[in-house]
Amino acid sequence: MKLVVEKGFGGASAILIAKDAGVATGYFYRHYKGKKEMVNSLLQDVYQEMFTKFQELSLQGLTFSVITENMIRNFIELANANPVKIKFLYVLTHDYSFVVDPSIKESIFRLLIQLKNLGHESGELDKEINEDDLYQILIMNVLQTINLGFRKQKGKNSFKNPATEHLVYLTGKVLR
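RE: above sequence
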């Protein structure tokens, strides 16, 4: 993840990744067909971590607003606990040379459709907002805001509480 963050998807070669991990390039290829497969595997792990929390919240019968607020807070907790993971997501979502594995995309959108349906049924989500909008608002916007927060702090990798509260407020306003 660190190399993708530092060099982008295109700049993080399998050779560099193997060298950074302290293994032979042949060992790398025994586990992965190539860099794309390895990066998608890492991406799947990060998204799974985030969306397992979403599934837990959904099973508790919480409202759309509570779930979306918790999703935002979970992204920020992850950013504060492990900034490389959030930066990794940010870099990959902005790198045109990287293509997300279709199974990862499908699992993300399945959850977003569930969330959209919950919001529409409860009246907490504007009826014109679809799952693509939710992806843009709840994932892309949150990643962008966290990244901007990191940049403003010039190397300090923590997202402060007032910024969190404002992001939760703005996101809720947009979704209603």
